[in-house]
Amino acid sequence: MTKIQILGSGCTKCHRLTEVTEQAAREMGLQYELEKVTDVLRYADFGVMFTPALVVDGVVKLSGKVPTLDEAKRLLA
User: Are the C-beta atoms of residues 4 and 21 closer than 8 Å to each other?
Assistant: First the structure.
């Protein structure tokens, strides 16, 4: 099971990152658990300065932008 975390305040870009990531995971047939991290103090635990951010299995894969669907699939692979 892949653990996916979306770091962000709940802004429009954060919602879009969640949508794109979930769509990519579904299309890939990935079994995943999704957690939305909205606590700003937890961002520092990941070393993230810009949101939204995508964390996969504890590794920051993307910060400060929303990927395309194809980019999201590459990040989840």
Answer: yes
